[in-house]
Amino acid sequence: MTARTLRTPKDLADAGLVAPERLAELEGVAARYAVAVTPAMVELIPDNDAMARQFVPNEAELQTTSDELADPIGDDAHSPVSGVVHRYPDRVLLKANHACAVYCRFCFRREMVGPDGVRPMSAAQLDAAMAYIAADPAIWEVIVTGGDPLILSPRRLADLMARLARIPHVKIVRFHTRVPAVEPERVTAELVAALQAPGKTTWVALHANRAEELTPAAAAACARIVDAGVPMVSQTVLLKGVNDEAAALEALMRRFVELRIKPYYLHHADMAPGTSHFRTTLAEGQALMRDLRGTVSGLCQPTYVLDIPGGHGKAPVGPCYATDGEVTDPQGQAHRYPPGD
Fold first, then answer.
1. CB-based burial label for 163 (10 Å; 0-12, 13-18, 19+)
2. Which of 134, 255, 284, 293 qualifies as a cystine partner to 280, CB 3.0-4.6 A?
């Protein structure tokens, strides 16, 4: 296995992941958007275009369309204090850091993360964020995100959980991460213990887009989390050329369930700058959801959602199976059903 994370186009070329003649163009991409590919993902990229597409920079990233936005889901419009996004009444995002183990080429926060992005929260900013959360008794859940919070040390994670533990109305703490798949060796017993605190229920949401990402090492990392009593759910982004085929999504959702991870969200790709080459149409996504409904267990069904640009929140955008007087089965056949009064 490659011994270190690859962080430059030259690193990628030296590892045989990009052609040397592409270096000049890729340096331009890397100057704008951070690059990092962990050893676990490097192992999966050769001969797998779908995996390469997720992590290896591409010149198309410098092509921004008129409808793409630096803040595509409108975090800034709902940020009352630095590091907090409060879009829904009962929950907030807490952006604990702005770095990741890997940098996805389709990231919706790509303008904010990485070495040249938003700086980590200062002690004063974290104090202000905790004060904001403590002052609003309607906040039931804190979603710790970033960046990827699981690249923080167990000591810092334990400190964060201890501070949240002192806020009685916060009952749920959810961590959003790619680490168990992309850098599974980070998921030690010490880190898992740091995610828990008395009086709080911790959940972990794992982002993965291909079944291949859930390697034996990733499975072992997830088992350490689940066996400690921390339930897991999944997040997946629908990406052209990565997982926009029924077989790919079926394999991924089944693999999640096999690892005791409940499929949660299938995200329509956001309008982030330089990502148009990843976006499918909504109709394509809905067709894939119909295929899933007809072929795999209900345990394997995520909710297909779109984050409405501008900060208006998530909307389910899956296919509709019923109209007044008619219901369509998973195979596409229509059946009469009595309309309601």
1. middle
2. 284
